[in-house]
Amino acid sequence: AQRRPVAEWDGTGATADGHRVKVLGNVGSAADARAAAVAGAEGIGLFRTEFCYLAAHTEPTVAEQYDAYLPVLEPFAGKPVVVRTLDAGADKPLAFLAPGAEPNPALGVRGLRVAFDRPDVLDRQLEAIAKAASVSGAEVSVMAPMVATAAEAAWFAERARAAGLPRAGVMIEIPAAALAAREIMAVADFVSVGTNDLAQYTFAADRQLGAVAVLNDPWQPALLRLLELVGAAAGASGKPAGVCGEAAADPWLARVLAGFGMTSLSMNAPAVRAVGASLATATFADCQEAAKKALAGQPRH
Ligand code: PEP
Ligand code: MG
After folding, report:
1. How close is the Cα of 110 to the center of ligand 2, in Å?
2. Beta carbon of 245 within 6 Å of any ligand 1 atom
3. Confidence of residue 6 (pLDDT cuts 50, 70, 90)
4. Contact 225, 178 (CB under 8 A)
5. Global confidence as pTM
6. 3-state class of 91 per DSSP?
7. Is 31 helix (H, G, I), strand (E, B) or coil?
8. Which residues surround ligand 2, an ion (CB under 5 A)?
9. Mean pLDDT of 262-266
10. Are 46 and 265 in contact (CB under 8 A)?
11. Alpha carbon of residue 50 to chain centroid
């Protein structure tokens, strides 16, 4: 196999020997989407739609949502864009979906759990996404946050398809979901691992608390074992699996994630080139070796 040039990244996410791993952008606004496009992202792996409404007091209408989503999709016409449905609660509270007092908001009604009580809110969002998708020409998928079981994933996928959205995936960010990855892959079209929350819930360490930050280090072998499980489940199913947490923005860890069989990595715009270049200068066998070492807790690089 031919080695690809070291210094430059040609904009197609792949290892030196041509094993494809898409390099995608994380965005929360139209400005972020433009920055991701300029940085060379091949698509969007995570559009955090709740970022559009952190200051909203009332639920945005379908028309307002359409207006917010369309300019995020437009720079990526013809390219893949994953739109995450509202991840309200815990560190991202939305006034119009407040669950009431909870002793442990991170363990409470957040993410997709909100939609079980308010499926009408989810359906209106799916309607707006479907409209924006068809006008933009982007290859839009939808993705649910904070999914714990395959039954929840199936419930979401059914609602997405009913709204005319043909590709429905879920985030793996609860340890139970990583352990059930095979069952989830059977009902969802793809998965994407949110390592920020997956680390928080695996180590019982608040992601916002500096005092426990060392536990939220994504190089922790116990977290990597869950990522390995997800990669293997994806490989067995033949369906895509990505990583869209902060872990994907670390160029060295990106190789480890590729070695687990992840088919895409999604990150903030400033990290896109470095991750693309890191993948391009390692063979897939190098990535698998890096994965083995990281699982064993050996020095990083
Ligand atoms: C994550 O949890 O890793 C993730 C990508 O989602 P968020 O950071 O928005 O919770
Ligand atoms: Mg999350």
Report:
1. 10
2. yes
3. very low
4. no
5. 0.96
6. coil
7. helix
8. 173, 194, 197
9. 98
10. no
11. 14
